[in-house]
TrEMBL record:
GO terms for molecular function: endonuclease activity. It comes from the Bacteria. This is Uma2 family endonuclease. InterPro entries: Nuclease_put_TT1808, Restrct_endonuc-II-like, Uma2. Gene3D superfamilies: tt1808, chain A (3.90.1570.10). Keywords: Endonuclease, Hydrolase, Nuclease. The keyword Flavoprotein does not apply. It comes from Streptomyces sp. R35. The keyword Lipid biosynthesis does not apply. Pfam families: Uma2. Residues 20-190 form the Putative restriction endonuclease domain.
Length: 203
């Protein structure tokens, strides 16, 4: 997410109330609370959405979206880092009983998330820094970042306090097989995903 932040007001759930007011006033924008600050990102562009579509296909083809797990976009993840903290990853692999783990504000317990994925936009620093810490502290097993700015795909595993102990970076021409803990063997074509996230050249 990119840069806008706000001071935390006093009182119960006032920061969430402010974030929800901002959602109402800014259609298409996404607002999250991480580390007690509201983070905002503008509406996704077509290449961003295209990359997400390409990413969903190998998960579904491998059978991840079935009886035990689901592939979902834009679902809220309640974070343990603050009393009102939550994130909204672009894509997530979650347990099918996720609705039994509802917390509040359309967010769910992190234990229901097997993988979270972000496709960067102007918010690339947050995806590669702020959210690494947030998702690691939430103990999300796998965090994938499609870094459109630097044309790389990051796979982070083995979460702990503030960081993932394993961080692998893949370039175009490579492929990556994700850990079996997501529920199936899924291999991502780095070139295909990064190309989908590039704006198409027009004459």
């Amino acid at each position: 997410m990119s840069a806008a932040s706000a001071e935390r007001p006093h009182g119960d759930r006032q920061l969430i109330a402010e974030a929800n007011r901002l959602v109402d006033r800014n259609p298409g924008y996404r607002f999250e609370i991480i580390g007690g600050q509201i983070l905002a990102a503008p509406p996704r562009d077509a290449p961003h959405a295209r990359a997400l579509t390409k990413l969903m296909r190998p998960f579904i083809a491998a059978g991840v979206d079935g009886d035990e797990a689901e592939v979902l976009q834009g679902i809220g993840l309640w974070l343990p880092t603050g009393t009102e903290d939550y994130a909204i990853p672009d894509l997530a692999i979650v347990d099918t009983d996720i609705e039994e783990h509802y917390v509040e504000n359309n967010c769910y317990e992190p234990a229901s998330f097997r993988l979270v994925l972000e496709v960067t936009s102007s918010n690339w620093k947050a995806d590669l820094q702020t959210k690494v810490t947030a998702y690691a502290n939430a103990m999300v097993p796998i965090y994938v970042v499609v870094d459109r700015k630097h044309q790389r795909l990051h796979v982070l595993t083995d979460p702990g306090a503030n960081e993932y102990s394993t961080h692998q970076v893949y370039a175009p021409g490579q492929s990556v097989t994700l850990p079996d803990s997501i529920g199936a063997k899924v291999t991502l074509d780095v070139t295909e995903i990064l190309e989908a996230g590039r704006p198409k050249q027009t004459s």
